[in-house]
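Side project, low priority. Logging it here so it doesn't get lost.
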Amino acid sequence: MGDLCREADEARLSLGMSCAALGRALRLSGWQAARICRGQSPELSVVRLSQLCAVVGLDLAARSFPGALPVRDAGHGKLLRRVRARLGPTLAWSLEVPVVEMRVSGSLDRRAWDATIGGPGWLLGVEAETRVRDVQALLRRIELKVRDGRVDGVLLVLSDTTNHRQLMREHESLLRDTFPGSPRQALRALRNGTLPPLRTALLL
């Protein structure tokens, strides 16, 4: 937060505001306000930093970036095991496969396919979902993985729940355009160890 504190301090100086006046606005002592502006307050909270910015006429904004792999629940693991159980013995199966090992904006891209299925000369990324709430957001996320990754196709596997059946009915056209493959054909091909339709969404 040091850079943000320095920006706030520069704004304070441009306003001709003393640390004592800043402290009064924040209900702190001038000495405490000065320490914050110098980035010497290790326990500075986001709330306090937001208050500091507001006093000197700045808006504090935040963004999130892909970081560590998300925590998955037991249902997610069971869904992946159901997919694995339907594969022919000649197919390769790997879990949590990085989309691509590269640095984006100076940080490591930590996105991963939930699994990949590999056959002779082809590789499918597997996205397994137990609780989809926003279909469009899910599809955008998958398309970005396809764009940046090294897969030939995607198998979207949704747990067979009432909610997912309703979502698939409500977004039938969108899902069919994005995933035109037949679930039956895909499962049959995977069981036989052959290449399935490259874009398939199915309930399992």
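Brief comment: Residues 135-148 form the longest helix (14 residues).
Revisit when time allows.
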